[in-house]
Amino acid sequence: MTRLTMPLLIGALILSGCGRIGDSGWNPLRWRGSPSTPETLAPEGGYNATADARPGVPHIASANWEPLAEGRLLVARGVGPTKGYHSAALVTARSQPEGRFGPDEDGILRLRFVALPPAAGSPAARMAADPLADQIVVALPLSFRQLSRISGVEISGAGDIVTLRK
Length: 166
Known about the structure:
By secondary structure, the protein is α+β, with helices and mostly antiparallel strands. The chain is built from three helices and seven strands; from the N terminus they run H-E-E-E-E-H-E-H-E-E.
């Protein structure tokens, strides 16, 4: 009988560590202490800190909100001194995970309006831009969930800063 009792007690003790009881003090796997839990979900070395190498748009002409079914569309328009600006985007001013847009501690979402200028010596680089025809337009959709944490948006270019409130 004692040969059967000891394996049954050991089995019951091991099974007590499973399931919801696994977080209790009865769990034998926790008797040595719990492993340290991270204080943040950010990667150990932080997020990729490589900043976008594209220069800021020389002049931000306007920025406004457009309604969407799931949120709002932030539309920014800029003008360069010459024709041929390309690969424009709104990027976050501080490093954040890919595709995520979170505000700073003060509730302001800070973005940079960037675009690549035309190659030096190209025909487009020699032609002056027409402010009406050669606008650089970018848009960023923000869901209602993202907008709930944002009190305003600040868009900076090479020399201009435009602020929008919600």
